[in-house]
Write a structure and sequence with these properties.
alpha+beta
Length: about 325
Amino acid sequence: CCCCCCCCQVGANMGVVGMCKEHLGVALALKVPVFFVITKVDICPEHVLKNTVQSLASILKKPGVRKKPYLVRGHGEVLTAARNITSDSLAPIFLTSAVTGKGLDLVRMFYSLLPQRHRWVEAQSQAAEFIIDETFGVPGVGTVVAGTVKRGVITPNTPLLLGPDIGDGTFKSASIKSIHYKRLPVGQVVAGQTAALALKKVKRAQVRKGMVLVDERLQPAASWEFDADIAILTHSTTIQPRYQAVIHCEIIRQAARVVAMDMERLRSGDRACVRFRFLQRPEYITPGTRFVFREGRTKGIGVVVASEKPSASSTPT
């Protein structure tokens, strides 16, 4: 996961709702540091706010979470929270109001002090890779893709490979016309930055969310199947081959089927090495990437171990 931190917002008058618990569970599964911003404290009665903070603190102290709730009320506490956020044992809590402005200065200060979890400077020396989050058709410009530079440096007129193609899953040549970073034209973007890239001679219909722009030196290939080490978080029955779930891996969102595993069946709490097969189209997926899979109330996490690069004639079954 490329994100450095997860911010969960909690309405002071609403309390900790189910969606907040879901987001906390995903952050814990992906091992992303998390902090909480309690909003609307200006309209919330004192006793309700107290109950909201207490319920949040009780959730954070549970065995599956094991985080220490840390209420931030001053600048010194912001420094302590920012310094220890990556230790996975601290969960800062901010009390804010967008109406009165209470606590917003502390949140801004905390954002400015957040340490980086990834070694982006080292990633800049690697071959370029850009993950596409959104696509746009801009009049007078053409096709524009927005996303994150995962590694390397990208400059205008850089020859890259765009894929996997919507039709055949291959990678095709593409060139960068111009680059915008924070709504301003720039000469380059580096690993760790988000940007918008204007592509030359590429129709918007040829680009979708989940595709990548990569350096041709990486010799990228889309995969129908990949092997992963997984852990089942919650499941009511058993998981066997032919089980289907939705894979959430970086920006990839697609259903996949279990085609093989090193155990006969899996239950909640089990770990195994499993081979997944995408159902709709091949995806560009790299070893070491963390992902979440879900199906109904079933949730699990995993790490990609290897991705199969099949021949051009390979088709889904």
